[in-house]
Structures are given as structure tokens and as C-alpha cells.
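Data availability (excerpt). The following record was deposited with the supplementary files.
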Amino acid sequence: MIILNLGCGSKISRHTAIVNIDWSILLRLRTNRLLRLAVPYLLTGDRRKRFDLLGDNVMVHDLSKGIPFDSNSVDVVYHSHMLEHLDREGVPKFLAEVKRVLKPGGVHRIVVPDLELLCRKYFKSLERSSSSNSDVENHDGYVGAIIEQCVRKESAGSSLQPPFRRFIENALLGDARKRGETHQWMYDRVNLGYLLTDSGFKNSSVERYDTSSIFDWHSYYLDQNEEGNEYNPGSLYMESTK
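Predicted structure:
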């Protein structure tokens, strides 16, 4: 059994069946001996905590250059809160790569922020705010949940740094879009299902964080933690097959 965890970031599974793949700055620091020496000077606070929690079972690879596996060699391809960060014109190429590496009948499991759920929460807040002003002070939060990551200019991490460090990071690493933080599109069960069908996948279905056609899914702890709780509340889960 081979399961690819694409764009894993710091959410790395230690299960022996899973290959974690990402190109994040933290992982590149982790796997480069020289750069690792500079970590005490470069990383502080939450960044250092996330760095220290990273495992060694990760493949550092730029997925824009393809998925580094042979055709028809993988049982499951999984990615969470990654697809929405890809430019729309690049999505078909990415999905074609997923399909290429999957074995016939292999499962493609996608997790993205659920635009439908976010919109439903927004409209409920709109009704409450319009009728009684009971939710006015919180209303912008529901708007932000939909568009904040689409319009963000500065990286969230850099914005919290002291002024000089903030300036250096932005000069060296670029803005939020360059770092891949911004959402390039949003998905719901309709447009994601159509996208999968149009890309040649079959049997698309909406799942929950704790349901899957993948055997023994709960044991991998990708969409739930060890206590059984949902890792990314508010997500849409969809599966399809090659």
C-alpha cells in the first residue's frame, strides 16, 4: 500500500504506508544540513515549535515539476487544503499527474475549504445582523472566512515579526501569493465534482473526515487526530477513482 500525502506542510504522517511530500521552507531547512545550523537564529516561537515537530519521513519536492513516482504505481493520492492554492490554469495539469501515478482503481482523496458551508454561515450571520443587529460585530469574520486568503498581500507569519525581521523576510521571500499562501479559487461539492469528472476520474463522492473507501482510513490520522476529532473543521471531503 502506497499513499501519497501531497503538500503535507507540517502535517506529516508517520505511518509506514504514507509518503509525505512538500516543498515548504521549513522542510527545506529541515533537510539541508547547512541551513539547519541557522535554525536557532531564523526560527522562533510557533515557527520553531512546528519545525521541531517535523519528522524525517518526508520527501522534499516541488510538485509544480510533477509527482516523482512512476505511472500506475500508487494506491492512494491524498492532499488537504492544497488545491485551492493552485492557479486555476495549473489545476488540470496537476490532476493529470495524480491520475498518471494512480493504479487503475486507485483512490484520489481531496480536502478543501468548503465554500458552500462558508456561504451558509455567512448568510445566517447576514440574517441575524439584519434582523436584530445581534451579530454585527462578528459579521466581517464570516466575510473574511471566504475571501481573506484570496486578497491577503503579506504572509501571515511575516506580519507578526518585529519590523526589521519583517522587512527582510518580505524582501527575500516575497508576498503571500509568491509563498503560496493565497487561495486562487474556492470549491464546493458541485464544481469540485465536475472538475474531477472532467479530468477523467470516476465515482466521485462526498465523504466525511472519518469516512472513506480507503481501507482502514482512520488509522492514518490524516483527517482526524488521535482523539478522533476532525483535523480541519469546515472542510469538504471528496473521493474519486482512476
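Summary of structural features: The longest strand covers residues 102-113.
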